């Protein structure tokens, strides 16, 4: 077994929430923590050289008390190998349950994965399609618009989602089934606003956090770690709310732009030069300097495990919006709390993505499609309410927002479980 066990971490978070809620029953705690079902499949694929290669895939269905399972499918090869990936998928499916409950959408938690790195292993388009369709076939009995609705994740895109939808439809007597999966291209029943969803949602949560701590976003200084989908849209929407981006980074390095710059201009530079580094009027800085820049809002929007105890001690921001998954190590949380920095935890800050996935599914199931603004406005309502509900709980129990979001989510799932009871 690997050193760091993500599922143990997910289980601890459930237990911490149960402690606050006064739930002592060990069996109930186990029910909340463990996935309902974990499917592990062999995926034989005929490779281009004529040989057969057998891949391993997973689908973890954590909890469906509030609605069908929901969560991405990633193609990746984490360092810990296949056994580590199994634990990781279980943990990620658990986080999806809580994420959906916080923003109060009627879905549960799921996650899937294939142990493969399509980038480094350079799989051809044909090999990728055969792998995807064979995996879809293997999990077809447990997915479906009313059962479990996957989505894209690390190294999977609208292309794989379309192939899974088509495989599922053909296996079911050619029944058009766009609602079996989300994150599809628009031409395949995808939703408008899905591309900006995570960054836009993060910006909405920052707006609510700013109101809560009486911070004026007009002229507020923003630092973005990462310059991809989640972070650039978060930056652009914060700009629309009056804020100014003063430091950014990508995989090639970090820069500080003391006078501030428009995200669109930095993007133009990155498109031409391949990195944010070298942007006119900027100075190259270290990752630590980026994260500890004096600012109002820090958006870690790239990688996990970025803010450790050392960095936490040096932070000079008022709000942290975790657009990335897991950017803060548990050791840093008490330090951040002591420094009175308001953290919008990942399961809330980046939940705009799953909110709009839910709205894609609703549109697919009704066959009626909304405009960009209609979708964005619906997401805004859910994520804003999620922030307000969690913030109220954090005040009531005198806990940080990370714990408060978990308490809120566990309460909501338990309520559904108690309504239904156990059958048979
Ligand atoms: N996109 C979504 O809808 C979505 C939804 C929920 C959560 N997230 C989370 O947001 C994070 C980013 O996802 P994304 O979709 O924006 O990915 P992306 O691939 O679009 O962007 C990632 C960015 O991180 C940068 N990066 C890589 N290594 C870095 C380093 N060492 N230092 C600084 N920057 C580095 C890359 O250069 C890139 O700009 C991930 O943790 C992901 O799980 C994304």
UniProtKB/TrEMBL annotation:
InterPro entries: Aminoacid_DH-like_N_sf (IPR046346), Glu/Leu/Phe/Val/Trp_DH (IPR006095), Glu/Leu/Phe/Val/Trp_DH_C (IPR006096), Glu/Leu/Phe/Val/Trp_DH_dimer (IPR006097), Glu_DH (IPR014362), NAD(P)-bd_dom_sf (IPR036291), NAD_bind_Glu_DH (IPR033922). NAD(+) binds at residues 198, 229. Keywords: NAD, Nucleotide-binding, Oxidoreductase. GO terms for biological process: L-glutamate catabolic process. One of its GO terms (molecular function) is nucleotide binding. Transmembrane segments: none annotated. The keyword NAD applies. Homohexamer. Belongs to the Glu/Leu/Phe/Val dehydrogenases family. PANTHER family: GLUTAMATE DEHYDROGENASE (PTHR11606), GLUTAMATE DEHYDROGENASE 1, MITOCHONDRIAL (PTHR11606:SF13). This is Glutamate dehydrogenase.
